[in-house]
Amino acid sequence: MAAAAVHGRALNSVVSQLDSSLDRSAMVKLSSTVTFVLTTILVGSAVPQTVGGAPEPPRFEDYPVGRIFKRTPAPVDLRSHPQARSFRTRLREGAKHGPNFAGHLTIVTWGCGTSCRQLAIVDAKTGGVTFGPLYTVEVGFRLDSRLLIVNTPESILEYYGGRCPERGRSIDTVSSYFAWDGRELKEVTSIDLCPEQSGELSNSIRADAADAAPLTAPALGALCFSVEGY
Where are the domains positioned within the chain? Predict the structure, then answer.
């Protein structure tokens, strides 16, 4: 908004200087141009930007699935991934509940240490196993969508009590968005909820710690379902 005000004052100054040399018709056209430019600046500054350049977070509706698998899930194929056998009990227990993601996939999660959770994906059709990224708070997904949100904005917001961290970051403040392409997860974009603190060292103290910036989760447009393992 401050940048828009500076642009506005500069443009108004130009208009004032040209007032004596332009006829009324020309001034009307110039005023219309000034109004359009200011509107563009103000609207552009109000649109949230993501690290990946997208103007808003991806929505579940943007990644629909054609069919929902409703038959009995196939047995987990422990040969489909090198790590599958090490987590066979968790994978089998989770997979038997049937798909909960992308129409025919089952997301299974479990803890792997302090502020660490593991995510695996089991194909209900084939039993094939894919391992996803580690995460710290919650993941968001739906049965009727191929979109997966790792560290949802809502869960980060809750972790930090609604504000950006005053001292470093005990967990990352970045939400990552992935889409299932039929074989694997592909990252779509990432959103840092606290971009002003991104360049700080983990143990640095903010000069304005007593007046930390509010943390607002971007609107997702749909309910996120999280799974804490089965």
Answer: 2-46, 60-211
pLDDT band at 193 (very low <50, low <70, confident <90, very high): confident
Say whether pTM exceeds 0.70. Answer: no
Spell out the long-range contacts of 86-89 with Cβ–Cβ below 8 A and sequence spacing 24 or more. 87/118, 87/120
Return the amino acid letter for 214. Answer: P
Q: Is the dihedral of CA 73, 77, 78, 82 positive or negative?
A: negative
CA distance 72 to 16: 75
Q: Per this entry, what is the length of the chain?
A: 230
Q: φ, ψ for residue 220 (rounded to 5)? A: -95, -20
What are the pLDDT digits (tens) for 40-82?
332 333 334 444 443 489 999 999 999 999 999 999 999 999 9
The answer to whether 178 touches 134, Cβ cutoff 8 Å, is no
Percentage helix, strand, coil, to 5, in the chain? 30, 20, 50
Sign of CA dihedral 152, 157, 159, 163: positive
